[in-house]
Amino acid sequence: MSDLQTPSSVAFVSLGCPKNLVDSERMLGSLREAGVEVVPSDSPADAIVVNTCGFLEASREESLSVLRDAIERKERGEIGRVVVAGCLVQRHRAKLLDWAPGIDSMIGVFDRDRIVDAVSTSPPTREGLDAEGPRYWIAGNALQAAADRGRDVVGLTVAGDDGKGIGYFEDDADRFRLTPRHWAYLRMSEGCNQKCAFCTIPSIRGKMRSKPLDVLLDEAARLLDDGCVELNLIGQDTTSWGRDVGDDRGLAGLLKAINDLCESRGDAGRARLMYAYPTSFTDEMIDAIRDLPRIVDYIDMPLQHASDAMLTAMRRNVTAEQQRTLALKLRERIPGMAIRTTFITGFPGETEVDHEQLLEFIDEIEFDAMGVFRYSAEAGTPAGRMERDPALAVPEEIKRRREAELMLRQQEIAFENAAYLAEQRVQMDVLIDGEAGATAEVALP
Q: Are residues 425 and 327 in the same domain?
C-alpha cells in the first residue's frame, strides 16, 4: 500500500439490490476513512467505482453500459481510473476485459475491503504508464477470503450445514449511507444455502454466512445513533439466520434482540423483515412479529409461484398449499399484517393452467404489494438448461401478457384495499421520506 498513490477524489455508481447497496456504503466508508473525497457520479474524478449487478441479463447489460460510459469518460480525460466491483466481477471476471476494455481494477464480492488499493495508482514508469497494469482482488469464496486476511479457519466450512460455517467476517459498520438518514438497511447475512433452479446467487455470493448477533446489534445501535428510525432487515434468506453457525436463537431470537434495542432508545426505532423464505417460517417467527412492538407488522417474502408444478420445477422445496397456509396464518394471527411478495412468470414449462392458479392465489391472499419478473434464462442454472428445450420455453410475448395480467389484478386489489381504508377512516403511522410536489412518499404501515 505504501507504494500506491491514493486519489484525492472518487466518483461512485451503485447498481443492483439492497445487499449490493450495503457493500457500496461500506466501500464509500473505507474511501472516506482514507481521506478520499467522494464526488457525484457525473463529476470529474481521479477514479470511478462501478459496483455492478450480474444477477439477470438485464442487470448485466445495465452494468456494462455504465462501465463503457465510464471508460469513454476516462478516454476524454474526465476520469483517471475505472474500477469495477460486485457481482458482475465475481461471476464473469474472465470475460469482463473483453466486454469492457479499459478497466483498471476489479474487486470481487469477498474483497470489498481492497477498495482503497483498487482506486489507487502505482508510481508511473518512464513512459508515464501505470507500472502494474490492471489489478485484481477476486477471492473464490468466503473461506479463502477469510484465510487471506489471517482469520483462523481451521475446522470451519463454507456450507455450514454442520453449524460450523465460516460466518460473516466482513464489517458493515462505518458506512457512508446512501439511503435517507431516517432509514437504513441492516444486513443479517450474506449468501444462500437454498438451491432454486433459476438463481445464480449461491454461485456468486457463496453459501450462507450469518452475521453474529452481537455484531448485528452493534451495527443497529450505530444506525439508530445516526438518526435512523427504521431498520430494514435484509439477506438472501433471512428466515435461515443463525442455522449455518449453530445459533439456536434463530430469527425469532434476533427479532427480539432488535426489538429490545429499539425499545431501549425511547420512542424512535423500529424494524421490518425482508427477504424471508417460506420454507421453515415457524409459528415462533410469526409470534415474534405479532408480539414485539418494535417489529413492524410487515413481511417481504418472495414466493415465486403458486402452482405445485412450477414450485417443483423451480426447486423451491415448498408446496402451493404450504404457502397458502402460511399466508393465511400470517393474516389470521397478525391483524393488519402487510405482506409483500414477488413472482416469476414465464418459467420454463409454465402453462396457462399454472398461470391461472397463480392468479387465483393472488385473488385469495390479496397481497399488499407485489412484483412480477419475467423469467430470464441464466447460464449455469438448471432452469437455464430447461429454457433451451423448445417444448418448455415460454415465448416472450406470452411472458409479457402474463406479467400484465398479474400486475393488473394486483393493481385492482391495491385500489380496493386503499378505498376500504379510506372509507373506514383508518389512521396509520407513516414514515415520510420527503415532499414530492403536492404529495409525499411514505412507507407503510
A: yes
CA distance 112 to 92: 17
The span from the CA of 20 to the CA of 59, in Å, is 13
The verdict on residue 33 lying in a domain is yes
Whether 247 and 121 map to the same domain: the answer is: no
Closest CA to 187 of 169, 164, 160: 169
Q: Which residue has the cell 466501500?
A: 27
Cα–Cα distance, 86 to 423 (Å, whole number): 47
Residue 190 has pLDDT above 60, yes or no: yes
Residues, the chain, total? 445
Query: Which range marks the domain in which residue 219 is found?
Result: 183-443
Q: Are residues 190 and 126 in the same domain?
A: no
Count CB atoms within 10 A of the CB of residue 181. 11
**Dihedral (Cα; 46, 111, 198, 97), 10-degree rounding:** 50
The total of structural domains in the chain comes to 2
What percentage of the chain's residues is helix, strand, coil (to nearest 5)? 40, 20, 40
Whole-model pTM: value is 0.92
Q: Residue written as cell 446489534?
A: 217
CA distance 201 to 39: 31
Residues 375-420: pLDDT tens digits? Answer: 999 989 999 999 999 999 999 999 999 999 999 999 999 999 999 8
Residue 59 is placed in which grid cell?
A: 442487470
Is there a single domain that holds both residue 367 and residue 238?
yes
d(CA 425, CA 412): 20
- Sequence-distant (6+) residues with CB within 8 A of 226 are 177, 181, 184
**C-alpha distance from residue 310 to each of 118, 319, 337, 389, 390 (Å):** 43, 10, 27, 16, 17
| Distance in angstroms (rounded) separating the CA atoms of residues 237 and 247 | 15
Residues 6+ apart with CB under 8 A from 420: none
Taking each helix axis as running N to C, give the angle between helix 250-264 and helix 213-225, from 0 to 180 degrees, rounded to the nearest 10.
Answer: 30
The yes-or-no verdict on residue 3 having pLDDT over 80 is no
d(CA 118, CA 112) in angstroms, rounded, equals 9
For residue 135, the SS3 value is: strand
Is residue 292 domain-shared with residue 215, that is, in the same domain?
A: yes
**47 and 36 in contact (C-beta within 8 Å)?**
no
Q: Is 215 left (phi over 0), alpha (psi -120 to 50) or beta?
A: alpha
